[in-house]
Each structure stands twice: as C-alpha cells, then as structure tokens.
Amino acid sequence: MKKDRYGNPVEQVKAAHEMRQKLAGVKIDLSPAQMLLYGAGALGAHQITSHFLGNALNKMENSRRNVSRQSGEKKTLGILARVNPEVEEDPRTRAKARTLYGIVHRNAPFIAKEPVVAASVINTMLNSPTDLPTPDQFQMAAKLQKDTEGSRERRPFQGGSSEGNELNAQALAAMVAGA
After folding, report:
1. Is the dihedral of CA 110, 113, 114, 118 positive or negative?
2. Which end of the chain has a smaller Cβ tally under 10 Å, C or N?
3. Cβ contacts of 147-150, under 8 Å, gap ≥ 24
4. Domain residue spans in the chain?
5. pTM recorded for the entire structure
6. Alpha-carbon gap, residue 117 to 56, rounded angstroms
7. pLDDT (0 to 100) of residue 19
8. What is the pLDDT of residue 124?
9. What is the distance between the alpha carbons of residues 177 and 45, in angstroms, rounded to a whole number?
10. What is the structure's pLDDT at 150?
11. What is the C-alpha separation between 2 and 22, in angstroms, rounded?
12. pLDDT at 162
C-alpha cells in the first residue's frame, strides 16, 4: 500500500478528496448571465422590501408621536383654559395657544412633557404685548430646557437633583414674573 508524505494511505486520501468535492461542490447549471440576472433580481427584491418596511416603521413612529403630542396638548390646553378662560372662549386665542404649544413641543420637549409648566410658559407667551413671543421668553424657555436636560443627565433614573429642580423653579418663576 502506497502512502503520501504524511503517512496516510493514498487511496484513502483520494476517496476523502472525492467525498469533499461531492459535499462542497454543488453543481449549478447556470450561465454567468443567468447568475447576474438572479443576483440583480434578489438585490431589487431586497431594496423594495426594505423601502416598504422602512416606510411602514416610519409611519408607525410618526403616529405614536402624534398621539403623544395630542395627549400632551390636550392636557396642557385644559390646564391653560382653567387658568386663562379666554383660551376656552376665544377661538383665535385657542388657535394661538395650540400654535405656541407646537413651538414649545418642538423646541423644548421636556417642558412640553409637563403640562403645568407648558401651560405656564404658553400663558406667559399669550400675555405678551406683541402677537409673537419675545426673544427673552424664548431664551428663558431654552434655559429652562437646558437646565432640565442637565439635571436629567446627572441623575438619569432619579428625576433630577434638588439643585436642578430649584434652578427650574427659579427660571420658571422669573419667566412668569417677566411677562
């Protein structure tokens, strides 16, 4: 019996090589053009599927955000109507309050999540001498937002520090007093 340089019988090495070829080498009777065509089809199907799946997920997320925003807006405007009856009586004032809530919601989401604070900020903006909120009111809201974010970053699972809450209360008091 003949052996290879590693001491294995040559006939067994050849049999193992043939078995390996049978297991690993699946014969595909496709021309290169057909393989290219199938590959392009698979890529197109992947692109279409990911596009539709991405759009569906985006729509679900947007609807979740809209429900959350509408819920917060309803609570905030309810509190605002109790504090300022003009919001309930005058449709123009109510429309302005809704617009201001949208501005607060986009620019200061932490403020918008707290209906009492958001109602106070919007009431201050409604009582502004001009039709638009003043830059000072926006700066104060931005500072309040920054302080809130800062206190949540320091203690993310404990609702902020007492120092951060004092800063927020002071900033809110200054904003309400400044109107």
Report:
1. positive
2. N
3. 147/171, 148/110, 148/111, 149/110
4. 37-178
5. 0.49
6. 34
7. 85
8. 83
9. 61
10. 64
11. 24
12. 46
DSSP string, 15-73: HHHHHHHHHH-------HHHHHHHHHHHHHHHHHHHHHHHHHHHHHHHHHHHHHHHHHH
Strand, coil or helix: 96: helix
* Res 41: pLDDT: 93
Contact indicator for 144, 136 with CB cutoff of 8 Å? no
Q: Which amino acid is at 169?
A: A
DSSP category for residue 3: B
Cβ neighbourhood burial of 147 (10 Å; 0-12, 13-18, 19+): buried
For the chain (179 residues), the mean pLDDT of every run of 10, in chain order, is: 86 88 72 88 92 89 83 88 88 88 83 85 80 71 72 52 51 59
Q: How many CB atoms lie within 10 A of CB 88?
A: 15
Q: Which residues pair with 3 in a beta bridge?
A: 9
* Alpha-carbon gap, residue 38 to 27, rounded angstroms: 16
Place of tokens 């007093």: 177
Tokens of 88: 């309930």
Q: Which helix (H) or strand (E) holds 1?
A: none
User: Shortest CA distance to 101 belongs to which of 59, 147, 68, 130?
Assistant: 68
pLDDT for the residue numbered 172: 60
Number of H helices, E strands in the chain: 8, 0
Reading the block at residue 48, the tokens are 């279409």
Q: Which amino acid is at 14?
A: K
